[in-house]
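Message: Study each token:
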Amino acid sequence: MTLSLIFNDNFYSGGLYVFPNLAIAGLVYISAYLGIYPGWLMSYILFYIYGSMTPLNPAVFGFIGTLSYTVSYILWRKIPYDNAVTEILIVFITSCIYYITLFFIVFYFYGIHFLYWDFFISYSFPVSVSTALFAPAVFFFFKKAGYKNFLKKNKLIYL
């Protein structure tokens, strides 16, 4: 989470933000193997911490994280394949839902007006694409680290 914020702040070239949101990629991996209630709690805590590093209310990010987790959880249960293309597709959809929800909350609820096309074209779409393309590496890392086995051993999987 912190890496995403640091790299986007320090390496923004005035054009596109392209550093992937690693928290979303991790959230999608966890939703593939974790149950609905522990996943909701874990995603709320993860994104609440993420939101506390921003000027907005951290509970907003917690809500968006749980919404993204729910979308990812449903997609993993509907799509029976577990390969790189599926990972990329689910991460892209989840990331788009995350940024669209963030946009609507910031733009309409908080009344912070900005160029929404600039937000979608130069930030949310490129970050969603880079996150989706980077997701197989995150999944590979978690699989090599044995995170799925950790979840099973500690009975955190409720399918």
